[in-house]
Amino acid sequence: MIHLIKYAYLADLTYAKYHGGETYTGLPWIFHHFGPWSTDCYRRIEPALDIISATKRTIEGEKYGDFIRWHTDNDSLFDRLDYHMDLTVAGSVQQYIRKFGNDTYGLL
User: Is residue 45 classed exposed, middle or buried when 0-12, 13-18 and 19+ CB atoms within 10 A define those classes?
Assistant: First the structure.
């Protein structure tokens, strides 16, 4: 979930740059430990993933504890989302995903 939260923040940051500080999501952001955080964003992620029938997998880890990964193979969701998103936001999120992918430390 941390990746999704950070990508949502980066989308807001990009949108705000071109829209007088207004954010795309309208979410309140604070800086906490590893950067931007929104409790509202965090609370919305799992219900949204359930709606799109994403698969939840818990991975047990001794070093950092258990963590959760979500996955969906429904490419049409991406196409529909891209069509409905602001072009600037969609492009910036795609660039950030290409740059960071699942590199948590780089993204933070």
Answer: middle
Q: Report the interhelical angle of 2-18 vs 39-51 (nearest 10°).
A: 110
- Model pTM? 0.82
Q: What is the mean pLDDT of residues 23-30?
A: 95
C-alpha distance from residue 105 to each of 7, 17, 70 (Å):
13, 24, 19
Tokens found for residue 66: 């258990």
Report angle CA 6, 59, 36 to the nearest 5 degrees: 15
Residue 8 to residue 15: CA distance in whole angstroms:
11
- The DSSP bridge partners found for residue 56 are 70
